[in-house]
Amino acid sequence: MATSARYERLKKIMEKEKLDVVVVVSPENTLYFAETYVQTQSSIRDRLVCTILPLEKEPFIIGCSIEQETIEAETWIQDRYFFTEFVENPILVLADVLKKMGFDHGKVGIELDYLQAHYYRDITAALPDVEFVHCAKVFSKVRMIKEPAEIELLEFAGKSTVKALEKALLEVHPGDTEFKLATKIKQYMLEDGADVITFMVMSTAENSFKAHKLPNDEILPDGDLMRLDYGASYSRGKMHCYNSDVARTVLIGNPNPKYVEAMKRFSEAYLYTYEHVRPGISAKDLFNLCKEKCLSLGFDFNGPHIGHSLGIGLHEFPMLSPKEDFALEENMVFCIEPVLIAAGRKFHMEDLVQVTATGYKVLTQDVFHPTYLEIH
Length: 376
Description:
Layout: H1 5-17, E1 21-24, H2 27-34, H3 40-43, E2 50-54, E3 60-64, H4 68-74, E4 79-83, H5 90-100, E5 106-110, H6 117-126, E6 130-134, H7 136-143, H8 148-169, H9 178-191, E7 194-204, E8 225-236, E9 239-243, E10 246-252, H10 257-274, H11 283-296, E11 307-309, E12 316-319, E13 333-336, E14 339-342, E15 345-348, E16 351-355, E17 360-362, E18 373-375
Parallel strand pairs: 1-5, 3-4, 5-6, 10-18
Antiparallel strand pairs: 1-2, 2-3, 7-8, 8-9, 8-10, 11-12, 11-13, 13-16, 14-15, 16-17
Helix pairs in contact: 1-7, 5-6, 8-9, 10-11
């Protein structure tokens, strides 16, 4: 029987959830479980790739004939069918395969958060005796524990992302534009191996309160600050699309003393939060520790979370939120990113941390010294 280590880990969770079969349809889980990277699966959402993963029968993958060579060269799954686009409806192909495999009644897990509404309508009509249940968290529970090669790539991606910013900051000055800085950061990430720049948030002065503002032609104002949150995706060998996600606060020109003082307090809260990362602490408890420390240092704190896991997805399970009581485990990774308000500005830092057997390891810096950066 064709299998993989990830599939075997998935089966253990399926047994606990009493699922005889699950169906992967998202690009992230196709890449992770079927181990094939179909680029158009993301850009053309109607071009489904469906991976059927049963507890006891052979797995099966369905893809578009245009992508046949890619899928056949990469996936470990032996049973395959390739549909002709615009001639066959891929969701009805999936329904037909599920019928033939004996899954035409009972409970079938599928990613309802990714599946488009018109496909859901078609498959429920084709399989009226099936109860389709949302199973994204089943996949997330496998992906949350990172393999050594994943951690290695995420560490490279994070350090590359930090290095690009630090290099770019040496080449801009007060009075330059956000565009100029953003272009240099992107250039250096791409030169160091990034595949795609996935996001670039850049906001200066009063705009620091805008959560996801794009860089524009505004100047870098002397004596003020900039908040950056940015990342890219990186690949290595058969491992594709692993994300970086970093945030920094940058003081521009002559540092304003009130921003320097606020950053010192922020750095204290930030380091305090990292020092409590360890196996066994719950996501909720880590959130509350961070919140209490920030409030004790005089910050306004109203964020819905203080971070998230990271991997093929940008926000992976579990989130570091007050609603999540899931305990941290060894070889989970998290972007910890409290966003705080003080002195009329919003401050932001974010690094990637690995949960180790005895505590934590920061993956984005060789020497962890949280503080502000500067533009001179």
